[in-house]
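Most newcomers find our protein records easier to grasp once they have seen one. Sequence and backbone structure share a record, each on its own labelled line. To make this concrete, we reproduce a full record directly below:
***
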Amino acid sequence: MSSRPGAEVRPCPRRGLSRVEAAIYLGCSPSKFDELRKDGRVGPARLIDGRKVWDVRELDLAFEALPVESNDSAEDWNVAV
């Protein structure tokens, strides 16, 4: 048994993520996340009292709405090799 309280408890997946966590979830930086918010590609936050959190389900929808690269651009990285 550990001496730290709660050390045996596994982390619980959360539905609401902070701005930084939401950016990490989408695979981008917080500043890019802010750009996505400004141009409407990511929706508004939910509020827990005064704290802003982003719903992972809504982040999933925003991610799925992002464009998929074409086959031509997928091969561009090979040119420099």
In short: The mean pLDDT is 88.
